[in-house]
Structures are given as structure tokens and as C-alpha cells.
Amino acid sequence: MNLSKDLMAASSAPLILAILADGESYGYEIVQRVAELSGGKLHWTDGMMYPLLHRLEKQGYLAAVWRVAETGRKRKYYALTDAGKGVISEQQKQWQVVNNALNNAWRSTDNMIGTGGSNDGFQPA
């Protein structure tokens, strides 16, 4: 399944913030965590993720620091700031509203489709 770019864009910031709520991480590890959380259905590219990390950092939701990893490689680690921790709760509420609305809409659509539904005589042109 390929998710639309709009849906990917809308969900990416809340996903990053939620992942970093568990502790600091670096780019590749975040990409791997997204894949794991989605059961392998979300595949992020560097070109999508790093601009988002930089934007979240610029907004004050993330702090970043360069460190040398155990492998000897330099990595930029990201962590939530207090502002980032504060925005997670608000984003959870917003997504729950959207999720509930979609579930309700789809439930009524499923009921119509499952029973043969009616389009009230509507005929497309």
C-alpha cells in the first residue's frame, strides 16, 4: 500500500515527536522505528525526514547535538525540548478527533455499502 503524500506529510511530525518522547534518537534509527511501528507499511526517505527534523528543530520542538557513535561515526542526535513535549498532547487530541470522525464516516459508509446502499436516485452525469 502506498500512502498519499498528503497523509504522509500530515502524520510525519506527530510520529517523530512520539518516537522521540521515548528518548533521543538519530535519523536512521527514527526511519527504522517508523517502519517498525507501521508494520513495514511506512517507508521514509532521508529527503523527507531530514527537512522535517530541521523544521521541528527550528520551531523549538527538538534539540540536536552531534556525537560520535560506538562505531566511530558522527551522528546528529535529536531530543524533545520542553516545547516539543508540550505539543505532543495537543497533537494527540487533534489526531483523535480526526480518527474518530473518519471512523464514524467509514462506519456509515460500510453500512450503506454492506446493505446495498442507496444513492437516493443520484445519477452521475
Automatic annotation (TrEMBL):
<feature type="domain" description="Transcription regulator PadR N-terminal">
    <location>
        <begin position="16"/>
        <end position="88"/>
    </location>
</feature>
<dbReference type="InterPro" id="IPR036388">
    <property type="entry name" value="WH-like_DNA-bd_sf"/>
</dbReference>
<dbReference type="InterPro" id="IPR036390">
    <property type="entry name" value="WH_DNA-bd_sf"/>
</dbReference>
<protein>
    <submittedName>
        <fullName>PadR family transcriptional regulator</fullName>
    </submittedName>
</protein>
<dbReference type="InterPro" id="IPR052509">
    <property type="entry name" value="Metal_resp_DNA-bind_regulator"/>
</dbReference>
<dbReference type="Pfam" id="PF03551">
    <property type="entry name" value="PadR"/>
</dbReference>
<dbReference type="InterPro" id="IPR005149">
    <property type="entry name" value="Tscrpt_reg_PadR_N"/>
</dbReference>
